[in-house]
Design a protein that fits this description.
Layout lengths: L1 H13 L10 E8 L3 E8 L2 E2 L2 E2 L1 H15 L5 H19 L13 H12 L16 H10 L10
Antiparallel strand pairs: 1-2, 3-4
Length: 152
């Protein structure tokens, strides 16, 4: 998530330098069937013997990351939140059939876990939080999601 967040911030900051017939920044995307793809950009460092504004902007961002790895706390936090919500839906794969879940239930569960068991949604590996099945079941019960009756 950190790389995605920072890449988005860098791309946005370099966008003004992509215009014109001879831009100082060229956005690129390369792929190969065997190894996947990579997105990035080429930056012109010198123009007419002087350092370009595009390279100065990139260097400024690189220095910022050297001092603190997150370029935009808000963007990173949003990615972290959305990843955790997606992980909640994934982690509950076995429990989903046992409860009647409302639309957007995972957001309600995130809120409950945030208030009652925040360690379960803590980001530990830059992939968002991934709560345990036990904590999800506790959230479902506390939120009053009805259990599905099973016929024996």
């Amino acid at each position: 998530m950190l790389d995605l967040s920072n890449a988005g911030v860098i791309a946005k900051a370099l966008e003004p330098f992509t215009d014109g017939d001879d831009p100082d920044v060229v956005m690129e995307s390369h792929n190969h069937w065997a190894v996947g793809h990579v997105d990035g950009f080429s930056i012109r460092v010198f123009r007419d013997g002087k350092i370009t504004d595009a390279f100065r902007k990139y260097h400024e961002l690189a220095e910022s990351m050297a001092n603190y790895p997150i370029l935009d706390e808000s963007d990173y936090s949003n990615l972290e939140y959305e990843s955790t919500v997606a992980n909640i839906a994934d982690a509950a794969w076995r429990l989903k059939g046992d409860f009647e879940l409302p639309e957007d239930w995972q957001y309600e569960v995130y809120g409950w876990l945030s208030d009652n068991d925040c360690g379960e949604i803590e980001n530990r590996d830059d992939q968002g939080g991934y709560p345990s099945e036990e904590s999800l079941q506790a959230a479902f019960i506390a939120l009053g999601f009805p259990q599905v009756e099973t016929a024996c």
